[in-house]
Amino acid sequence: GQQLNQSPQSMFIQEGEDVSMNCTSSSIFNTWLWYKQDPGEGPVLLIALYKAGELTSNGRLTAQFGITRKDSFLNISASIPSDVGIYFCAGQAQAGTALIFGKGTTLSVSS
Amino acid sequence: DAGVIQSPRHEVTEMGQEVTLRCKPISGHDYLFWYRQTMMRGLELLIYFNNNVPIDDSGMPEDRFSAKMPNASFSTLKIQPSEPRDSAVYFCASTQRGRETQYFGPGTRLLVL
User: Fold this and answer.
1) pLDDT value at position B99?
2) Which of A5, A31, A99, A103 to mutate: most B Cβ within 10 Å?
3) Among candidates A108, A99, A111, which has minimal Cα distance to A43?
4) R_g over Cα of chain B
């Protein structure tokens, strides 16, 4: 079955630093999504990408849909303490099918 | 609009007991998903429904797990009998056809002793 490899597993950074995480897939996706999960809550959508090569921003967050359609990255600029949480990538092969999730990147930010 | 609603938020039970988790999707959404999250395995899809019909249940661990969606506004995930290895956070999510952005509920934290 399809698998997503998300890296790094965890990151420990200082407030103000930039962060980058990525996901790679063994097969092609038509949609890439990035979610954030705060402790004790469900994942919340951050950014959705629908086209190969697409670069989308949401505030300090920027994500890109890889040209090969098998990868995506998420950048967070000028991190702040509330960025702490688990970030998940998710891919979808076709509309109406289930999302495949990465294992998550746990981000810790020290002030 | 209310988001996805799950109940209970926490459940502690003893091995062998029946556990029923409940989910109310966002009104108008025709897809409903059940996920399980553990430290070891991350987020795993258990089953999903479209228009109340199960489409893919290949993620359901074994016969002890069952899910139903009797109408568009309610779904249940049942574990009978429960085992300690079922301890996890169970999430429900919903979306509309053609919109890939799934909306997650707050989850049910299940502990089986």
Assistant:
1) 67
2) A99
3) A99
4) 13
